[in-house]
Design brief:
The protein has 517 residues and is mostly beta strands. Among the domains are: 2-104, Sandwich (Immunoglobulin-like), CATH 2.60.40.60; 111-208, Cadherins (Immunoglobulin-like), CATH 2.60.40; 216-328, Immunoglobulin-like. The protein has helices at 342-367, 402-406, 440-453, 503-509, 511-516; strands at 2-7, 15-20, 32-39, 45-50, 55-60, 71-80, 94-104, 111-112, 117-122, 130-133, 136-137, 146-150, 160-162, 168-171, 182-191, 198-208, 216-217, 223-226, 234-241, 252-256, 266-270, 275-280, 292-301, 308-320, 326-328. Cadherins are calcium-dependent cell adhesion proteins. It is found in: Cell membrane. The chain crosses the membrane at residues 334-364.
């Protein structure tokens, strides 16, 4: 008797153990073949012979289930493959053994009641409505509790949700069959006591159609009627489409709106095949009187609830040949001379507009006045007058005539100001006569008064400078230009009489000793 064990999760082909029958013969007389003769596990296990060791290897043939059967018993038979006919009476040259295999329990993931689920729901179902249920259970003896969830990778918009306790699916957002007719989601079942044990199941949700869309024209129709059309002539055939998909197929009806039920110009004929024909009701049409007609048409279906819409058909009046082929539909062609197209009219209009703009610009340019240099008196304060004249030094006797300043009676022509308009053109400012022995202070006051009352004077922030040097100075001129230019020695002894502050100069220039130093 042999004892073996196998986990219930062992895949087919897994070896469980070895058995061996002893044979004292050698060579081919010792070769043995193993087989399962009977037992309750003959269809669950298999045995093969190892030719090298003459052992029998027991393997798993089918998936095991601890909850279904925990123990199997096998009768294994070992037989010589090459019996000698001379010794058959000594037979039977075989032996049997009993093999017991116990199945070990393994914690398994939950198992759903179906391999997949199909749920159908109307597209007008309310939010929170339960649409179906999935069921899973723990196959182990412990029967652990199960919780359910939706794999959000398969429901990114979170349209569906599930009660974790009983697996009931419900709607979280409105449905729209015309946008998404199918939803494929995945539901996950997990053991509460062992969250690692999970299983998944696909759930296919089909959205059933509800008649919530009205039919409309299948396309935009460019319809025209010839000016020479006859009454009862077909000018257009229209059809309709609907986003809904009724189970019995589409069925559309066409008619004019009640206000135009007796239209004097056109009528509509329902062809009973989801199309309708537009017919003329009178002879002849004129573009000069009416170039375009608007014909409103009601389209409705036969599903429940009935949906309808109104489409407007635009019909143009055109000139046609004798065969009814359109030639021209432009109403303005009747009013324009031959050979003058719409493009030519637009070009002529643009030229006229450009010409008017040029004339207007020229007139404005002529009327524009020249702005004054200075708008107000206050602006004068913002002007800066810069004079870059540079004198030639003290030797330059032509740069400034001091005699003119000393002669108050000298007259000079006034220069006109450029920032204001003078009251009198070419007015010459004359200064008041002054006598030669006038006091300097009076002289300055007279000059200041003249500048204040002179309209042609420089701006208010200009600086007028007058140089004046009096006569009979005790120190005479201090300029080096009037110093003696003789090469003879000068007497600087008087510097010693000026006090201690001039002692250094007296030592430097006074006496021969200082010259030698």
């Amino acid at each position: 008797t042999y004892q073996f064990s196998s986990p219930e999760s062992a895949p087919p082909g897994t070896p469980l153990g070895r058995i061996k029958a002893n044979d004292p013969d050698v060579g081919e007389n010792a070769e043995i073949e193993y087989s399962i003769s009977n037992g309750d596990g003959s269809d669950m296990f298999d045995i093969v012979t190892d030719k090298d060791t003459q052992e029998g290897i027991i393997t798993v043939k089918k998936h095991l289930d601890f909850e279904n059967k925990m123990l199997y018993t096998l009768r294994v038979e070992a037989t010589n493959t090459h019996p000698d006919p001379r010794f058959l009476q000594l037979g039977p040259f075989k032996d049997t053994a009993l093999v017991k295999i116990s199945v070990e329990d393994i914690d398994e993931p939950p198992v759903f009641s179906r391999p997949w689920y199909l749920i159908e729901v109307d597209e007008d179902a309310k939010e929170g409505s339960i649409i179906g249920q999935v069921v899973a259970q723990d196959p182990d003896i412990t029967k652990n509790a199960i919780k359910y969830s939706v794999d959000r990778h398969t429901d990114l918009d979170r349209i569906f949700n599930i009660y974790s306790g009983n697996g009931s699916l419900f709607i979280s957002k409105p449905l729209d069959r015309e946008e998404t007719p199918w939803h494929n989601i995945t539901v996950i079942a997990t053991e509460i006591n062992n969250p690692k044990q999970t299983s998944q199941i696909p759930v296919f949700i089909r959205i059933l159609d509800i008649n919530d869309h009205a039919p409309e024209f299948a396309k935009y129709y460019e319809t025209f009627v010839c000016e020479n059309a006859k009454a009862g002539q077909l000018i257009q055939t229209v059809s309709a489409i609907d986003k809904d998909e009724p189970p019995r197929g589409h069925k559309f009806f066409f008619e004019l709106v009640p206000e135009f039920a007796l239209h004097p110009n056109f009528s509509i004929v329902d062809n009973k095949d989801n199309t309708a024909g537009i017919m003329t009701r009178r002879n002849g049409y004129s573009r000069s009187k009416m170039s375009t007609y608007l014909l409103p048409i009601i389209i409705f279906d036969n599903d429940y609830p009935i949906q309808s819409s109104t489409g407007t058909l635009t019909i143009r009046v055109c000139a046609c040949d004798s065969r009814g082929n359109m030639q021209s539909c432009n109403a303005e062609a009747l009013l324009l001379p031959a050979g003058l197209s719409t493009g030519a009219l637009v070009a002529i209009l643009l030229c006229i507009i450009i010409l008017l703009l040029v004339v207007l610009f020229t007139a404005l340019k002529r009327q524009r006045k020249k702005e004054p240099l200075i708008i107000s008196k206050d602006d004068v304060r913002d002007n800066i007058v810069t004079y870059n004249d540079e004198g030639g030094g003290e030797e330059d006797t032509q740069a400034f005539d001091i005699g003119a300043l000393r002669n108050p009676e000298a007259r000079e022509e006034s220069k006109m100001r450029r920032d204001v308009i003078p009251e009198t053109i070419f007015q010459i400012r004359r200064t008041a006569p002054l006598w030669e022995n006038i006091d300097v202070q009076d002289f300055i006051h007279r000059r200041l008064k003249e500048n204040d009352s002179d309209p042609a004077a420089p701006p208010y922030d200009s600086l007028a400078t007058y140089a004046y040097e009096g006569n009979d100075s005790i120190a005479n001129s201090l300029s080096s230009l009037e110093s003696l230019t003789t090469e003879g020695n000068q007497d600087y002894d008087y510097l010693s009489d000026w006090g201690p502050r001039f002692k250094k100069l007296a030592d430097m220039y006074g006496g021969e000793d200082s010259d030698r130093d």
